[in-house]
Design a protein that fits this description.
mainly alpha, Alpha-lytic protease prodomain-like, 2 domains, three-stranded antiparallel sheet, 8 helices, elongated, transmembrane helix, membrane, Transmembrane protein 163a, synapse, Tmem163
């Protein structure tokens, strides 16, 4: 006997129309139907396949990972996501303090942009911690969408600050100062954020989590900004007339973060509204 689960939105009328042995619907019209199909193959080929369909209206609001992962696998990946988030918070917080110091001491727009992005990475990792703090809500779509909306708001606000700093430095023709400390921060931050980004992307793909993938995107941007500090500083050392490269990179990064934040809000706000009445299985 093969049991196949199929989920789709339906109201009371649709629930009654499907199948041959439907029970009277007693749930609200906005609930979901889970169709359990019992499929039996007879011994004789000529008899074909007998299908008996039963309808059950159950609450939905689950991510795709709920159909892919076994319970113990989901909990294992959830714990890994929590560990990666904690490591990301500690590491990026240290890098943020160092980058802010470099930015104000050396007048580097890219360093300021990276420091702000590192701060954003800390906030996004905190949001991911909240997202997976409840073991029972590992597959909760509503909780996932709320986390993504908060991330989108933080992205937009941070991009405004990054753009403001970069545009100010371009308007005042502020050249960055180059020293060994700047190189050290950029190299460490670039490689560290790259490793964190890969880990977050892998976990986000397995758990089908847009919040984790967004957190990984932010770490990837941090890696790019870390290496951009190194590149712009090296270019300025040999070509002082290219003083605007640092500020230009800051503007580009700010625009990328803003565009991603806006897209995230446009995608997730409607989904939060659609799932707000769903049971969260928490």
């Amino acid at each position: 006997m093969l049991i196949i689960f199929r989920k789709e939105r339906c109201d009371r009328d649709k629930c009654q129309e499907r199948g041959t042995h439907s029970q009277p619907a007693t749930h609200p019209p906005t609930q979901d139907c889970v169709f359990i199909i019992h499929k039996e193959n007879t011994k004789k080929k000529t008899e074909g396949v007998v299908l008996v369909t039963e309808l059950m209206c159950l609450t939905a609001g689950l991510l795709e990972s709920s159909m892919r992962l076994k319970p113990h696998e989901a909990q294992s990946y959830r714990k890994k996501a929590l560990w990666v988030s904690w490591i990301s918070i500690v590491v990026t917080l240290i890098l943020a303090v160092a980058a802010f110091t470099v930015s104000f001491m050396r007048h580097s727009a890219s360093a300021f942009g990276f420091a702000f992005d590192a701060t954003l990475d800390v906030l996004s990792s905190v949001i991911v911690l909240w997202r997976y703090s409840n073991a029972a809500a590992v597959h909760s779509a509503h909780r996932e969408y709320i986390a993504c909306v908060v991330l989108g708001i933080v992205f937009v606000l941070s991009s405004i600050c990054i753009l403001g700093k970069a545009i100010h430095d371009l308007a005042t023709k502020m050249p960055p100062e180059v020293d060994d400390f700047l190189f050290s921060v950029s190299i460490v931050s670039g490689f560290t954020c790259a490793v964190l980004a890969v880990a977050k992307f892998m976990l986000g793909r397995v758990l089908t989590s847009r919040a984790l993938i967004t957190d990984g995107f932010n770490s990837m941007v941090g890696a790019i900004m870390g290496f951009s500090i190194l590149i712009s500083a090296e270019v300025f050392k040999h070509h002082a007339d290219v003083w605007f490269l640092d500020g230009t990179i800051g503007v580009l990064i700010g625009l990328i973060i803003m565009a991603y934040g806006i897209k995230l809000l446009r995608d997730m706000v409607p989904r939060v509204r659609q799932t707000r009445n769903y049971e969260r299985f928490e």
